Amino acid sequence: MVQKKRMLVMTGGGDCPGLNAVIRAIVKRAKLEENWEVLGSIEAFNGVLSDPMEVVLLNGKTVSGIHIRGGTILKTTNKGGPFAWPVEQPDGSWITVDRCDELFERLEKLGVEAVISIGGEGSMDIAQRLYEKGLKVVGVPKTIDNDLSSTDVTFGFQTAVEIATDAVDKLVTTAASHNRVMIMEAMGRDAGWIGLSAAVAGGADVALIPEVPYDIEKVAAKIQERIQGGKGFAIVVISEGAKQKGGDVIARESDEVGYHNKLLGGVSHQLQANLKKIIPNIDSRVVILGHLQRGGTPTAYDRILATQFGVKAVELVLEEKFGEMVAYQKPDVISVPIKSAISEYNYVKPDSNLVQTARSVGISLGD
Ligand code: F6P
């Protein structure tokens, strides 16, 4: 039997609805090429670097029906990686070592000719560095935060917005019943896409996002206007990375080995306490949506986009367009250099139409 060429696919960084739809599309598109087969590395590059290796052959059977499932059948990690592999020392402390050379040797042993890395900014950064060292890699962007530039949107984002909007809708009825202020915290470390979108879709009164530092007095004034105006209740959406004017994000260090991000979450409690100081007579409750926004079935839109991305990724491999990342630039699915995709961050622009629309329908950004 003729030895088939092998492409290796992996998912890295935080999970995101639609990852399985990408994996399925990659396997299905590659199946059209008789001389190629697809391997999957478990937990990003960890599968290749583990002993024994955790690398699986992906075929029609393994990917059948997975497009409707959240998470990733290949598992994922946002710790470590080939450039900073954590190694425990005899005294219990940890150091990191560079295992790139070993990674290349192992990939050669596996007969891998190309790698498809599905991930966010961190994974794309690793992919770019490996590409510069000679790895034949293409990238597929994923993030619920929608914070990657070069692509109009990433899959997973719309699903997260649906979940957050559904939460706003549910909070409205309980807020109205009790005449309360409901503060809902959405994900979004540096970009407020999810929070702002859910605020517009759900008709919130206040949307506080990282890109627009807020003034607590203005937030309080908006809430009082709502309550005194006869509504009696108010809905505030706040992104986890939002901050007060002149203030910092609420974050703490993680004690997980190899995890370098700051742990966000909890800014809504600070907001609640500060509002109480200005309007002592309000009743308020906090809901932090957290990882709920990353779970469950992807929306049809995200499945379609994820499928388009998977197909395009295989085509980039076949065309040997390495160092490129799949991107959606309406109406086309194209590719852009990974390097340029990670050089810029996709912030919500304060003068964008979405922000203007929010303001026009009476949503306060607290500025
Ligand atoms: O990058 C997406 C994101 O959902 C952020 O909004 C959030 O802060 C982060 O991931 C949390 O990820 P994890 O808990 O998996 O490290």
Topology readout:
Blueprint: E1 5-11, H1 19-31, E2 36-41, H2 46-49, E3 55-58, H3 60-63, E4 85-88, E5 94-97, H4 100-110, E6 112-119, H5 121-132, E7 137-141, H6 157-178, E8 181-186, H7 193-202, E9 206-208, H8 216-228, E10 234-239, E11 251-252, E12 263-264, H9 267-278, E13 284-288, H10 300-318, E14 324-329, E15 332-337, H11 338-343, H12 353-360
Parallel strand pairs: 1-2, 1-6, 6-7, 7-14, 8-10, 8-13, 9-10
Antiparallel strand pairs: 2-3, 4-5, 11-12, 14-15
Helix pairs in contact: 1-10, 6-7, 7-12, 8-9
Give a verbal description of the structure:
- This protein is an alpha/beta fold.
- Helix content is 37%, strand content 20%.
- It folds into 2 domains: 5-155 and 298-330, 3-Layer(aba) Sandwich (Rossmann fold), CATH 3.40.50; 160-294 and 349-360, Phosphofructokinase domain (Rossmann fold), CATH 3.40.50.
- It has helices at residues 19-31, 46-49, 60-63, 100-110, 121-132, 157-178, 193-202, 216-228, 267-278, 300-318, 338-343, 353-360; strands at residues 5-11, 36-41, 55-58, 85-88, 94-97, 112-119, 137-141, 181-186, 206-208, 234-239, 251-252, 263-264, 284-288, 324-329, 332-337.
- Helix 1 (19-31) crosses helix 10 (300-318), helix 6 packs across helix 7 and helix 8 crosses helix 9.
- The longest helix has 22 residues, at 157-178.
- It is elongated.
- The protein starts with a strand and ends in a 7-residue tail after the last helix.
- Bound molecules: 6-O-phosphono-beta-D-fructofuranose.
